Amino acid sequence: FTSTGSILATALAVLISLGFSYYINHFSSYNKVYGSIGTLIVTMIWLYLNSLIILLGFELNASIDLSKKSIKIVQPSYNILKPKKEVVKEVLPVKNGMNFFKNK
Q1: What is the pLDDT of residue 103?
Q2: Residues 50 and 57: beta-carbon distance below 8 Å
Q3: What is the pTM of this model?
Q4: What is the DSSP letter of 77?
Q5: Among candidates 5, 1, 2, which has minimal Cα distance to 61?
Q6: pLDDT digits (tens, 9 = 90+) for 24-74
């Protein structure tokens, strides 16, 4: 099973791995700065870049799959932006708030 996203992710993973190894061998000085923990930092950066590549391949596959589906846009049966008007049938005058709660 191959898809466009998996082909892209594989190609980018190979390119990033080659480019990253070239950078580490020629320009980086992680061992001088960080000592033995530099290897861990380099490995974590490489894992981060590869996880981004896998995510990019998945997003490409999801976008292609979504574009192939027919999407039907349906108007809602009610409008949630306009609240319904409530009709007040009778307004009772209240002179004092305490009188409102007294039994008549």
Answers
A1: 56
A2: no
A3: 0.59
A4: S
A5: 5
A6: 888 777 777 777 787 888 889 999 999 999 999 999 999 888 888 776 667
Flag whether 84 is in a domain: yes
Q: Cα(28)–Cα(42) distance, rounded to whole angstroms?
A: 10
3-class DSSP state of 26: helix
Q: How many domains does the chain have?
A: 1
Say if CB 50 and CB 13 are below 8 A apart. Answer: yes
Q: What is the DSSP string of 78-92?
A: S-SSSPPPPPP----
pLDDT at 99 exceeding the cut of 60: no
- What is the span of the domain harbouring residue 89? 1-97
Q: Identify the sign of the CA torsion 19, 20, 25, 28.
A: positive
- Is 24 in contact with 76 (CB distance < 8 Å)? no
* pLDDT reported for residue 24: 82
